[in-house]
């Protein structure tokens, strides 16, 4: 189904429906209708595909993806900057990065390494990542809900200006439309703080 495939590519690129609609110069309603398989003008489809860097012919002829299971292996690790995701993998390296490389690219907290996990269903709404904190992240917000779980170190998650300190094994969930940020509870941290972040995409 064309709409499902467009949604998959949009999610893989980390773009919201609002962003795609703006880049394609179409309404948000048109993008939602297209992804749900509703009737759309061919010109709208072409604009949305162009905004995602896709060719309509390739999408129509693409084989259906396995819809029920998605696995992320260690070889699939690709690290990005949490804030500058559109800049591509850290250092331009299309391969897994060592801990030393990630620390170097983080540049004492100037970048926030994020591993975008491939364990996402083609039509799913869960976006799973691993975040490494060497310093505080910029404040950001986006549609949906977000759940975070601390793997190692102590993290401070701030939501709407209120800080919550989490130890390993502790978690929280919040409306991610609220301004939020992450930081090591200790500064500078002895080791990077590692979080699992799972985002539920409500921007449909």
Automatic annotation (TrEMBL):
InterPro entries named in the record: Cro/C1-type_HTH (IPR001387), Cupin_2 (IPR013096), Lambda_DNA-bd_dom_sf (IPR010982), RmlC-like_jellyroll (IPR014710), RmlC_Cupin_sf (IPR011051)
SUPFAM superfamilies xrefs: lambda repressor-like DNA-binding domains, RmlC-like cupins
Organism domain of life: Bacteria
Chain ranges of the HTH cro/C1-type domain: 6-59
GO molecular function (one): DNA binding
The name this protein goes by in its record: HTH cro/C1-type domain-containing protein
């Amino acid at each position: 189904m064309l709409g499902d495939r467009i949604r998959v590519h949009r999610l893989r690129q980390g773009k919201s429906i609002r962003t795609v609609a703006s880049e394609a110069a179409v309404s948000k309603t048109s993008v939602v209708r297209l992804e749900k398989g509703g009737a759309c003008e061919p010109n709208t489809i072409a604009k949305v595909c162009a905004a995602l860097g896709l060719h309509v012919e390739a999408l129509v002829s693409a084989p259906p993806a396995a819809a029920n299971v998605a696995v992320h292996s260690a070889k699939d690790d690709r690290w990005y900057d949490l804030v500058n995701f559109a800049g591509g993998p850290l250092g331009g390296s299309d391969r897994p990065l060592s801990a030393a490389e990630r620390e170097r690219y983080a540049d004492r907290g100037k970048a926030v390494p994020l591993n975008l996990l491939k364990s996402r269903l083609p039509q799913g709404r869960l976006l799973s990542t691993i975040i490494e904190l060497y310093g505080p992240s910029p404040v950001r917000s986006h549609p949906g809900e977000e759940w975070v779980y601390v793997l190692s170190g102590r993290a401070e998650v701030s939501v709407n200006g209120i800080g919550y300190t989490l130890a390993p094994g502790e978690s929280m969930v919040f409306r991610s439309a609220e301004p939020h940020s992450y930081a090591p509870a200790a500064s500078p941290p002895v080791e990077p703080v590692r979080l699992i972040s799972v985002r539920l995409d409500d921007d449909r």
